Amino acid sequence: MRRSGVLAAAVAVLLAGSVVAATAGTTTGFAQWGPLTGSTNDYATTMQLPAVGFPEATVASDSRADVALPSGATNWFGASTPPGQRYGSSRDQAYLNLRPRADNASSPSTTTYTFDRPTPQGWTVVLGDVDADQVRVSATRADGTAATTADLGFRSAFNLCDTTPRPSSVCSDTGRPKDVPTWDPATATLRGNDAAVDSDGATGWFEPTTSLRTLTFTFTRRAGLPIFQTWFAVTKQDVSGTVAVTTGTCSLASATVSLVDASGAVVATRSVDASGTYAFDGVAASDGYRVALSGVPATCLVTGPSSRAIDLRAGDAVADFSVRQAVPVPITGEVRAASGPLEGVTVTLTPVAGGPSRTTTTDVSGRYVFEDNADDADYTIAVTAPAGYLPAPDRTATVPAGATTPVTDQDFVLQALPTVSGVVAGPDGPLAGVTVELTGGGSTYRAVTAADGTYALPRVPAGAYVLAVPNPPAGYLTPAASPVTVGTADVPDQDVVLSRVAATGSVAGTVTLDGRPLPGAVVTVAAAAAGAAGAAVTTDAEGIFGIGALAPGTYRVTVAAPAGTSGGAARTVTITVAGEDLTGQDFALVTAPVTSDPVVPAPDDPSDPAADPTSDDDGGSAPDDGAVLPDSGGPPLALPLLGLALTTAGAVAVVAARPRRG
């Protein structure tokens, strides 16, 4: 039997753990970018916010060249701007420059950030230079569903030139306006000024209000040769605490404290030092975290909860724990699955010989402890399988007579229900950030593909399902759903191949007149076949035109040249199955020189005295004696004189022949 007095010796007043907010010590950090790879219409990089608990993002963009990662030395938002008041100035912090897919309103670029796991909160994205263009913002939540406009967390629009000092590259005295864009919540679009003119410093900022798996910007040109900037920043707080031994002897040499995010993922682990303290510095300032204590010796147990919720939105947090020596004889073990420890699993201990049952739950390392067990007795240990796991058989543990050491290794390995997994790819390879849905039996399971296109839908009950990609990325067709049957084993290789939307191209260029942009000129793009209807567009204030969504084929491009101009000859272009964006299809019109028809003098009338160069009529004067008239290349002078003599003789004869009156 148990030694008398053990229970009495174990009676103690235990200190409860605490979670309190410490004095706020907020710090901030701006995005760190990986190498920019690829070329026009196919760029990639990575983005990492420098905070514990913030996942890395894989970035893919079909922006045209030139995409760049400027240093922020000459373009930034200042500390006095709305985001700057919370995150500080972005001066000397790198940002991403992006453009449309092609320079016309029908060819927007799509840039998607796919996060390794759901994001915390406490971060911002700032979009700059949104003036003669617009940006539509969309996102996917942690569960794979589409984010709402409210989830995007638009805060305000402002002008980054309203700061001192002003960024030199965009806020110099150019004469351009310093306006602000407008946010349309109905379309989740940040739009530049109504006139679509180039301006300086137009900026908007967002603070997402929910965890995201993807974030997408669709950037459309409205005029000019647009570009927009993207900054990311995060606020950070610190977490600290102590682990105190309140009763007996407990070694903390193996004790650790884990930081667990809202999705249940362990994002960081710290050892408890010799003085019993721990700290996490620079954690993304969000709610939804927990700190969890594990690694306590088998002879000890945690007093109170082994994990505590913390909220870092208002400042730093302190979470304390206490442990004590367990009353002999403890029974301890772990509950895990093939994927790792299972936290929060209910375990029940029942004396075989009869008596009340007791329950406890596993900690973050899957460990459970029952203390104060009578020796020379047998016990049944049962696990309540959580959702998604198959039941496990009970165990029987024996505490030998006179035992003083713990009964350890009473472990359970639970079998998870099957996982359905595969890869989502397009013609050019894996696709990140795609939501996959498995529907059946009244339930829908969702997952978002990782950077390598893989997805996994764990713990799916047996049954018949349909696998679908309901919202494929821009430029891809929705594939037909496929049946999936789930039994007792994993179902791998459920791959989905997305087909591209039929490739289309665009034609763009500039119309000038005498070297200056010609606004309002009508440009028509029509299939080269005779009589084919065409699409017409009018050049903007800068003389630029663009027509998109053109299927592969040969097209005739014409401009309605104003009267009195030349240089508007039609041209023929060809778009292949690759869907090219044919820029540079320019028309250089010139004003035709003014010309007039030559004036031909009427022939002279011999009966007109004015025709006689010797006549004095009408103020004429005969040439001076001895003057020589210029030879105009006509007949010799003798011929006209002979003609005149003959005419005179004829006239005399006619007069002589008239009858006389008496």
Chain-wise SSE layout:
Elements: H1 6-10, E1 19-21, E2 27-30, E3 32-33, E4 37-39, E5 42-48, E6 57-61, H2 82-87, E7 96-98, E8 109-115, E9 123-128, E10 133-141, H3 149-152, E11 154-159, H4 168-171, E12 182-184, E13 189-191, E14 202-206, E15 212-221, E16 228-247, E17 256-260, E18 266-271, E19 277-284, E20 289-294, E21 300-303, E22 307-310, E23 317-319, E24 321-325, E25 331-337, E26 340-341, E27 346-351, E28 358-361, E29 367-370, E30 377-384, E31 395-399, E32 412-414, E33 420-426, E34 429-430, E35 435-440, E36 443-448, E37 454-457, E38 463-468, E39 482-486, E40 496-497, E41 505-513, E42 516-517, E43 522-527, E44 534-538, E45 544-550, E46 553-559, E47 565-566, E48 571-575, E49 581-582, E50 587-591, H5 638-657
Parallel strand pairs: 16-23, 16-24, 25-32, 33-40, 41-49, 41-50
Antiparallel strand pairs: 1-23, 2-16, 3-5, 4-5, 5-6, 6-8, 7-16, 8-15, 9-14, 9-16, 10-13, 10-15, 11-14, 12-13, 16-19, 17-18, 17-20, 20-22, 21-24, 25-26, 25-29, 27-28, 27-30, 30-31, 33-34, 33-37, 35-36, 35-38, 38-39, 41-42, 41-45, 43-44, 43-46, 46-48, 47-50
Describe the structure.
- It is a single chain.
- This protein has 662 residues and is mainly β.
- The chain has five helices and 50 strands.
- Among the domains are: 28-234, no CATH class; 329-416, Immunoglobulins (Immunoglobulin-like, Sandwich), CATH 2.60.40; 420-497, Immunoglobulin-like, CATH 2.60.40; 505-591, Immunoglobulin-like (Sandwich).
- The strands form nine sheets. Strands 1, 2, 7, 9, 11, 14, 16, 19, 21, 23 and 24 form an eleven-stranded mixed β-sheet that branches.
- The chain is elongated and about 150 Å long.
